[in-house]
Design a protein that fits this description.
CATH class: Alpha Beta
Strand content: 15-25%
Structural class: alpha+beta
CATH architecture: 2-Layer Sandwich
Strand order of the largest sheet: 1-2-3-4-5
Order of helices and strands: HHEEEEEHH
Radius of gyration: 15 Å
CATH topology: Metal Transport, Frataxin, Chain A
Number of domains: 1
Number of strands: 5
Distance between the termini: 25 Å
Shape: globular
Number of helices: 4
Largest sheet: 5 strands, antiparallel
Length: 108
């Protein structure tokens, strides 16, 4: 039985997805589509993102603004209130070591 449960757990975690906010927020729906895409470049970020309000998220411990374009397969982030924008990965490259460790676990 424990072996069966272990298989169930691993298949559950493999199917875990970021769920967009129930309000129908278009940005959050685009974020969900991009981070949930199998093999997508943002897939590892799905465990670190938490929507606070329309366009504003926690990514690990950093509060950032996000805009997403599913056609361009791009998530851009801003940590200065939307004055400047960069690819999510570029902006977060300077994140704390603990966030990098979480990201690596999320990619597995």
């Amino acid at each position: 039985r424990s072996e069966e449960r272990g298989r169930d757990v691993s298949s559950e975690s493999a199917g875990w997805e970021y769920r967009p906010h129930s309000s129908g927020d278009a940005t959050d729906a685009a974020v969900a589509a991009l981070v949930n895409r199998p093999g997508g470049r943002y897939r590892g970020w799905r465990a670190l993102l938490c929507r606070l309000e329309r366009g504003v998220y926690l990514c690990g411990t950093r509060r950032i603004h996000i805009r997403a374009d599913t056609a361009a397969e791009l998530i851009e982030a801003s940590d200065d209130g939307g004055k400047t924008w960069a690819d999510l990965e570029d902006l977060m490259r300077g994140a704390e070591a603990s966030q990098h460790a979480l990201l690596e676990r999320a990619r597995d």
